[in-house]
Specification:
By secondary structure, the protein is mainly α. The chain has one domain. It contains seven helices and no strands. Helix 1 runs antiparallel to helix 2. The longest helix is centred in the N-terminal third of the chain and has 36 residues. The two termini are about 25 Å apart. The model has no long low-confidence stretch (mean pLDDT about 85).
């Protein structure tokens, strides 16, 4: 009974940490919407919205959703049946890494109007996630129960695509916005397609 109470208390801690992470993500999303729809503090009508800003916001939105979804699933499933003593310090490292990603998302949100800055922050986000994946793999008691390996593969490929895109001449900047949006869409589609069962676990058989 004492062990059950200890495990329940630990799960409450994980939920609290996830709540704080969610607050940062919500702030980033709210900021990006404000800068896209109301750059001067007053909402533009739909016909006045900048296509470039919409493309950047689209890339931001389709990225932040799976990141938040995946981080929440990871934290809840990883620590669901673990007592706080079995992974001492691991939860805090996970949380601080996710919090850092939340800060980067906020930086991306405030860079909606600055394509080059947005892409640099996007690359930083993916690199942080790659480092975090390495940590989750090596600290896991069972490597098969860590974060999906596809996250590392997809994000690594996206980093390469963004580096190449960042090197494109400014003369084709309009096309860069469209390509950036396409890259973000492809990353998210592959993410959800290849890791569908992780994001949406099938019900356990009774």
């Amino acid at each position: 009974m004492a062990s059950d109470n200890k495990n329940d208390s630990f799960k409450d801690v994980v939920r609290i940490l996830l709540y704080l992470y969610g607050v940062v993500i919500a702030l980033a999303l709210t900021t990006s919407i404000g800068l896209t729809v109301a750059p001067q503090g007053i909402a533009l009508n739909p016909f006045e919205l900048s296509l470039q800003n919409l493309a950047t916001f689209g890339a931001f939105f389709v990225t932040i959703v799976p990141f938040y979804h995946g981080a929440s699933v990871y934290m809840l499933t990883t620590y669901r049946n673990h007592y706080y003593s079995s992974k001492k310090g691991a939860t805090l490292i996970d949380f601080f890494t996710l919090s850092l990603e939340g800060v980067v998302f906020y930086a991306m949100a405030t860079s909606i109007h600055h394509l080059s800055s947005f892409m640099v922050w996007f690359i930083i986000l993916l690199v942080i996630d790659l480092v975090w994946y390495g940590f989750t793999y090596f600290k896991a008691e069972d490597p098969k129960k860590t974060a999906p390996k596809w996250w590392a593969i997809i994000n690594g490929a996206t980093v390469l695509a963004l580096i190449i895109l960042s090197a494109v001449s400014v003369e084709v900047v309009v096309q860069v916005y469209a390509i950036l949006f396409a890259v973000a869409i492809i990353r998210t589609v592959l993410d959800y397609s290849l890791c569908y069962k992780y994001y949406f676990p099938p019900p356990k058989e009774s």
